[in-house]
C-alpha cells in the first residue's frame, strides 16, 4: 500500500509539472482564410510549434473578412492572450487591429502577409514576393519562347485579392521582367481573389473573350488550379499555367506533366515556426527582433521537381 501511494504521489507531481510546462500562456493564431490548403498548413504549423513550446493555442479563421478579423481581435484582447501570430486579411485594413493589440500589450508577429505600417507588429515574416514574381517572370519568358517560337505571345493574368500586399508584389515582380519583351502581350488581367473556384470561373470567361491566349500567370496556386481545370475542361492543350505557392496539388500536377509549367515555392512551415519561436522568446523577455523579414522563395518546374515536396523541399 505504501509503495502504491508513493507511486501515485510521484505520478501526480509529474503530471502537475507537465501541465504547468504545457500551459505557459495563450497564443492566438489568426489566419486570413482556412478555405485554402496553403493557409491550413500555415495555421497548423504555427499551432503545432507554439504548443510544442508550451502554450495553449486557439486558431481563428477570418474568412477573408476584415470585419471578422476585427471581431477576433476583440475576443483575443478580452480573453487575455499573450501573443498573436497573425496572417492579415488586408495590408491597410488590418493596421487598426494590430494597433489595438499593441496598445493592449499583446505582441503581434505577422506571417506570410504584412501590413502597410511600421512600428506596430513586432516582426513581419513573409515571402520575398517581388523576387518570386521576378523568378517566375524569367522562367515564363524562357519557357514560352521555347514552346512557341513566335513574335506574338498573348497571355492573361489572374490577380489575387486586390487589397493584399502579396498580390501586387508578385505581379509587379513578374511585369518587371516580362514587360521588357515586346512579343508578350497581356490581353486580360482580372482578380480571382486567390480562390480556386473563382479562378475556374474567371478563366472560363477569359477563354471565351480571348481564345488566342497561350498562357495564364496566376498570383497563387489555388487560382492556378482553377485555371488548369477550366483549360482542361475546354480541351485546350496549347495553354500553359504558371503559379505561386508550392501547394500540394500543383506540385503533383507539375510532377505529372500537366499544363502547369512552374510555380514559386514558398516555405509556410518555416515562416510559422519562426513566428511561434520569436513569440516565445518575446514572452521570455527578448526584445531585439528585425521588423521586416523577407523569406527566400524558389522556382519549381519539371526540370527540378524531384527536389520538392508540397510546401517545401523534400
UniProtKB/TrEMBL annotation:
Known EC number: 3.6.3.17
Family, as annotated: Belongs to the bacterial solute-binding protein 2 family.
Cellular localization per UniProt: Cell envelope
Protein name (Swiss-Prot/TrEMBL): Monosaccharide-transporting ATPase
Domain named Periplasmic binding protein: residues: 27-286
EC class name: hydrolase
Keywords: Hydrolase, Signal
Signal peptide: 1-21
Signal as UniProt keyword: yes
GO CC annotations on file: cell envelope
This protein's record includes keyword Cytoplasm: no
InterPro entries listed in its UniProt record: Peripla_BP_I, SBP_2_dom
Molecular function as annotated in GO: carbohydrate binding; hydrolase activity
Cited SUPFAM superfamilies: Periplasmic binding protein-like I
